[in-house]
Amino acid sequence: MVGVNTIQILEKVSDTFLRNPEVRKGDDLSSELITTQDALDGMAQRLAGASCIAFDLECASNLHRYVGRVCLMQLATHDEVFLVDTLLNLNLKPIQRILENSAVEIVIHDTGFDLRSLDCYYGWRPNHIFDTLIAARLCGHQKFGLASLLEHFFEVTSLKKFQRADWTKRPLSEEMLSYAALDVSHLVALRDLFAEQLEKNERMEWASAIFERSEETRFEPDERPLFERVKRARISCDGRELAIVQELAILRDEIAREFDLPHFRIFRDEVLIALATDPPVNAQALASRPGLHPQCQKRYAPRLIEAIDRGKRMPELCYPPSKKHPRLSASCKKLLVSLREWREREASRLGVEENVILSTRSLKRLAGGEGIDTVLQEESINAWQGERIARELRDLISEFKNRSVD
What we know:
Layout: H1 6-19, E1 32-34, H2 37-47, E2 52-59, E3 70-76, E4 81-85, H3 93-99, E5 105-108, H4 111-122, E6 129-131, H5 132-138, H6 146-154, H7 174-185, H8 187-200, H9 204-214, H10 233-236, H11 239-259, H12 263-266, H13 269-277, H14 283-287, H15 301-313, H16 330-350, H17 354-357, H18 360-367, H19 372-376, H20 382-405
């Protein structure tokens, strides 16, 4: 039973890594902050021969800014760590060439955010990715956050307070730079550890299929009307009030853009809903409302009252009909139970989470009668043991149908 011993084997491998003097542990990290074009070009030359490079980035959070931007890029090999200040006027093409070079494996922990950000702000398409989060899950880890893995395997502690830091501020503190360096300094070693285990368990093909699919991640802008993005407006507002919500949300967005602040720093969604459901009659009444940015009670007060009045005159709004999935029949629901039980057994046997085997959506599609081959085409496990999985599913579904007939 491969899955049962996975964690034990990984711990033995990690002990070997920690005994290796070439592997850093603790806080003895050194990094180079890149702030000039010459330094960036020099970094690219030093990385030119590397076959494996760790990558991460820090962005302007929607906790602090309206306009998103990449503030820092971190790149590392086994031996070197570089922090690139991307808020400076630097030509970042050398980094793009590194990330898009298929001869270089790019190690990222949890690719989703990074790949969407690179696509959104630069149009870059990294490839040949190794995602240490996915690898951790396929190796049976229940805690696969980077901080947990670094502490478990390398006995280092990440300062979680900087996860919500404002990375647009300059100069960056030494603590922030150390935090950023730590995000990549052990990634290549972590990659080597997991790659060895994936190979031992013959799961590298499975992992590679997931990595390749993740390379297709793209930024998808939210194109819904603003009123649809206001939390709880659906259950709190009628059609007339939704029209007011829309007008207020448009104005809030304009103010947030002007001050480069996130929406909630202008006023929160619950305040917006209160303005729509119990609208103030004039600027004086608005001034007594809590939760508004000071400028909303002064300079922007007349415009807020105008937005409310506009909403009162606009056509009522409603949400688009929800896309309801077809309801499963009683028989299909029983089949779904059997499929879930099969997935639970398979996950236990392999020592991984259940949704790593097959998604619940795929199980529902199978229970609803979709073809096994069609469903498995969208699942990464198909690249690893697809034939076996398909055979077991066919046997299960066939046996279930035979029992139902009897």
